[in-house]
Known about the structure:
Layout: E1 6-10, H1 17-31, E2 38-42, H2 48-55, E3 61-64, H3 81-87, E4 91-94, H4 97-103, H5 107-119, E5 123-128, H6 132-136, H7 140-152, H8 157-162, E6 164-167, H9 181-198, H10 201-206, E7 208-212, H11 220-224, E8 231-234, H12 241-248
Bound molecules: 1,3-dihydroxyacetonephosphate (13P).
The site of 1,3-dihydroxyacetonephosphate has 14 residues, from strand 8.
Amino acid sequence: MSRRPVIAGNWKMNLSADDAIALAAAVRDRCGRFRDVDVVIAPQGMMLWPIARRLEGSPVGLAAQNCHWADKGAYTGEFSPVQLKETGCTHVIIGHSERRQYFGETDEGVGKKARALHDHGLIPILCVGESLQQRESGQTIAVVSSQVAAGVAELSDDELAETIIAYEPVWAIGTGLTASPEQAQDVHLEIRNLLSRLANEATAQRVRIQYGGSVKPSNVRELMSQADIDGALVGGASLTIDSFAQLVAHREDFDK
Length: 256
Ligand code: 13P
């Protein structure tokens, strides 16, 4: 089954307002014309509103980097799915390892966020991944499986099929270390097999599973050539237009 690849840039807490707006406009102008790939950018939260205005009419998707599960309420510092939708977001990253590690995000909370996002027509990009210590002690599949299972527990089959899962081994994030295409493919296949058991084979075949962790123009083709790698969630290499555009265009002659 062929799944439409999705390349997403997670800008994390980087870029000034001016630089973020300029980069978003450049992504719109240079990456919005590729018909066989979905493109998503995830600016820092404060920048979502002005960037959404600049992406109007463009196929480039807009993601928040986090959300709360409630529609509104006394949750200082949080964004609700309702607000994100109103702002113009199409996607929301949930369960990123940096949020799990530094901000106490739990599997249960990630599941509630996935549920809330689908309630409001937003697509979750659900991040999972093991630490180096977990990989070295042979726990990779157990850890990733429990993160995935908790994250999608409240979803219907159709909602699951729309959800994007991002496998991001923690040891490969921002380190320059990339999982080999075979290492990544092994985990992606395990995730798809798990989804098949949790839902059914047809649903599992529809889910797009991105790889993340030091993806760059020099390794994207090899990673994307794997059967179960359907896209990339990119940090550092999404912060400049030239490298991000190369990632988006990895299947085409770049200036076609
Ligand atoms: P890097 O591409 O900088 O390793 O970051 C990956 C990531 O965490 C994307 O969410």
